[in-house]
């Protein structure tokens, strides 16, 4: 690429409960990258799912999230202009992305949750043949669905809590039988979650049958796939993984929640939650965490980044993997960047590395022969 700037597209926002978090992340990345080496094009996915591309935003570096959300871009023959004067690229038309594709070298999708880190945006970027940061379609999809992720962990032999996966229809068609099964296999207290959410949305602890019914009803509002887990009284430890086929891990961090569990309020409003970096745990625990995290990353065929979350039952010295987040919170004050900061990799260096990893993975994929006739 020589002295030419890397043209970096940032897709942010999205139709998810983590919309605001995504805005903060996009803003942080734009502020952190070296303007001499990057030319940034923000691509905003509005709450209604429509797309807005704004070249103008890159130069302005708005101080406030509102400014970022409301900035309008300069007209471009490939995009439609809405009545508000903004460039509107309907999300249902991936073809619009092909035109953006000619203006960027690599995309950093920082959209969390369903329609963001679940492989849908990644699939669109694959169709557009654009290099992008982070996990591909499969790792994103598996990492988003807690039930599928647990199935993969089980197959890989990773230590995890006992769980029961079920469909909403199973619950709705046979409530008593479903609760009998959960009581038999897990008992109380248990944790009920929608399989595809994130940010603790729809997650509830149940201490008896009545609470279980309520928790299942709540989770069923968010997803048709549900997961119930055995409750573990444990410390919550997290580690960052960075790389493609070869990877490094960060230091281990701990989330110390004042509330009963690490819920949405605690996560994003910082209500009484403290982060300990590095976590004060014995070396054999941090070693095991690094080892299991790499295995989980490989099992999902991860690339770029992932934050891998664990439960450590200190009393019995037992470690359980909880989940892999393929698009973890990524502001400078989020766990993942802070874990690497503590490992000696700054926020802007982290972005540099992730962009390079995305470009490398794309290049590696171009080696694949798509037409058998090419062999002859
Ligand atoms: N099996 C469990 N035992 C004890 N606490 C749990 C369990 N599962 C989840 N939690 C608590 O709920 C929080 C959110 O659950 P998690 O599975 O991480 O969902 P999310 O994808 O929303 O982060 C965890 O950080 C933890 O505090
Ligand atoms: Mg979690």
UniProtKB/TrEMBL annotation:
Region (Disordered): 70-89
Cell location: Cytoplasm
Pathway connected to this protein: Cell wall biogenesis; peptidoglycan biosynthesis
One Pfam assignment: Dala_Dala_lig_N
Needed cofactors: Mg(2+); Mn(2+)
Reaction it catalyzes: 2 D-alanine + ATP = D-alanyl-D-alanine + ADP + phosphate + H(+)
Stretches with biased composition (Polar residues): 71-89
Function in brief: Cell wall formation.
Full protein name: D-alanine--D-alanine ligase
């Amino acid at each position: 690429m020589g002295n030419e700037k890397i043209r970096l597209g940032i897709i942010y926002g999205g139709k998810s409960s983590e919309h605001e978090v995504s805005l903060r992340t996009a803003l942080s990345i734009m502020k952190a990258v070296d303007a001499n080496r990057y030319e940034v094009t923000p691509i905003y996915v509005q709450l209604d799912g429509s797309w807005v591309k704004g070249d103008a935003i890159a130069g302005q570096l708005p101080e406030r999230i509102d400014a970022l959300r409301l900035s309008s871009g300069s007209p471009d023959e490939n995009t439609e202009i809405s009545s508000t004067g903004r460039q509107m690229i309907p999300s249902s038309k991936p073809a619009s992305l092909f035109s953006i594709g000619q203006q960027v070298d690599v995309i950093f999708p920082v959209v969390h949750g369903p329609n963001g880190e679940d492989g849908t945006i990644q699939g669109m970027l694959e169709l557009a043949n654009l290099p992008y940061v982070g996990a591909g379609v499969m790792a994103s999809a598996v990492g988003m669905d807690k039930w599928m992720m647990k199935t993969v962990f089980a197959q890989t032999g990773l230590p995890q809590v006992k769980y029961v996966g079920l469909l909403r229809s199973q619950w709705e068609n046979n409530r008593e039988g479903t609760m009998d099964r959960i009581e038999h296999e897990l008992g109380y207290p248990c944790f009920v979650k929608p399989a595809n959410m994130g940010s603790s949305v729809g997650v509830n602890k149940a201490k008896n049958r009545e609470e279980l019914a309520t928790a299942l009803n709540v989770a069923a509002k968010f997803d048709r796939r549900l997961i119930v887990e055995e409750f573990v009284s444990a410390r919550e430890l997290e580690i960052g993984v960075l790389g493609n086929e070869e990877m490094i891990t960060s230091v281990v961090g701990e989330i110390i929640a004042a509330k009963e569990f690490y819920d949405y309020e605690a996560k994003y409003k910082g209500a009484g939650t403290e982060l300990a970096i590095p976590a004060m745990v014995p070396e054999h625990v941090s070693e095991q965490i690094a080892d299991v995290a790499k295995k989980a990353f490989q099992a999902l065929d991860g690339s770029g980044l992932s934050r891998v979350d664990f439960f450590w039952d200190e009393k019995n010295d037992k470690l359980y993997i909880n989940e892999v987040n393929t698009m973890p919170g990524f502001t400078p004050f989020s766990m993942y960047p802070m874990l690497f900061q503590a490992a000696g990799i700054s926020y802007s260096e982290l972005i540099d590395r992730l962009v390079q990893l995305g470009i490398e993975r794309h290049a590696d994929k171009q080696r694949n022969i798509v037409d058998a006739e090419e062999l002859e």
